[in-house]
């Protein structure tokens, strides 16, 4: 039987826009993400997909509705609990890599593991395995500034998976890459997601990438369809 690792029910979010008044971005959005499922989130800019990802990732709170991560209702959780759930159950990949420039690729993946209490030796071995899987075995000691855009994004993906999350949330993870590099990075992402068996919700404008995922949801009038 499938296991829901992310459940959004009746999510509403309204923003106040000065003289323009209130703008309802999400209006009763529902989504269930099963373990091992890769779902494309396709919607035009400004439609609320980043807001939805931030709510799913506990970086923002809905005005109404519930958020469940791995069966736990975290809608009204305090900052400490939300931080714990993010570190334990969620991985994030953004359009821009946000790697720490003063650290090597390997160190960027070791650091989040150390924050979770993993021994340095074990963290390094795991980081090496992830980077090797992403085709970066020969680039581990390079700092981000010495890596290409595609290499930087592959490091960012490996970092997002370093602590073994249950859910990966990605916001246009290949959006700033050229088409050929985008295809290679996305293929590496899908391989790693499939191997680890986690669930993934990936926002993309690219219909070819969306077609490679298990299913596609779109935002229409603040609801997911």
Automatic annotation (TrEMBL):
Listed GO CC annotations: membrane protein complex; plasma membrane
CDD domains: ABC_MJ0796_LolCDE_FtsE (cd03255)
Gene Ontology biological process terms from the UniProt entry: lipoprotein localization to outer membrane; protein localization to outer membrane
InterPro entries: AAA+_ATPase (IPR003593), ABC_transporter-like_ATP-bd (IPR003439), ABC_transporter-like_CS (IPR017871), ABC_transpr_LolD-like (IPR015854), MacB-like_ATP-bd (IPR017911), P-loop_NTPase (IPR027417)
GO function terms (MF aspect): ATP binding; ATP hydrolysis activity; transmembrane transporter activity
Pfam families the record matches: ABC_tran
Gene3D superfamilies assigned to the protein according to its UniProt record, in alphabetical order: P-loop containing nucleotide triphosphate hydrolases
Superkingdom of origin organism: Bacteria
Keywords annotated in UniProt: ATP-binding, Cell inner membrane, Cell membrane, Lipoprotein, Membrane, Nucleotide-binding, Transport
Keyword Transport: yes
Nucleotide-binding recorded as keyword: yes
Domain ABC transporter per the UniProt entry, residue ranges: 6-225
Cited SUPFAM superfamilies: P-loop containing nucleoside triphosphate hydrolases
Family membership noted in the UniProt record: Belongs to the ABC transporter superfamily. Macrolide exporter (TC 3.A.1.122) family.
The name this protein goes by in its record: Lipoprotein-releasing system ATP-binding protein
């Amino acid at each position: 039987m499938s296991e829901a690792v992310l459940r959004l029910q009746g999510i509403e979010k309204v923003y106040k826009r000065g003289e323009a008044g209130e703008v309802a971005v999400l209006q009763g959005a529902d989504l269930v993400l099963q373990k091992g499922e890769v779902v494309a989130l396709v919607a035009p800019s400004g439609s609320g997909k980043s807001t939805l990802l931030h709510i799913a990732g506990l970086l923002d709170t809905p005005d109404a509705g519930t958020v469940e991560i791995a069966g736990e209702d975290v809608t009204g959780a305090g900052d400490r609990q939300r931080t714990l759930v993010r570190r334990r159950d969620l991985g994030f990949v953004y359009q821009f890599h946000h790697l720490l420039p003063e650290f090597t690729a390997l160190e960027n993946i070791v650091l989040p593991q150390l924050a979770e209490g993993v021994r340095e030796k074990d963290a390094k071995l795991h980081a090496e395995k992830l980077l090797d899987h992403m085709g970066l075995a020969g680039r581990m000691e390079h700092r981000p500034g010495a890596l290409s855009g595609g290499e930087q994004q592959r490091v960012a993906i490996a970092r997002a998976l370093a602590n073994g999350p249950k859910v990966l949330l990605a916001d246009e993870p290949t959006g700033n890459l050229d088409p050929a590099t985008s295809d290679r990075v996305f293929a590496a992402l899908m391989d790693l997601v499939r191997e680890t068996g986690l669930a993934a919700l990936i926002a993309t404008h690219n219909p070819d990438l969306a077609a490679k995922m298990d299913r596609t949801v779109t935002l229409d009038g603040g609801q997911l369809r």
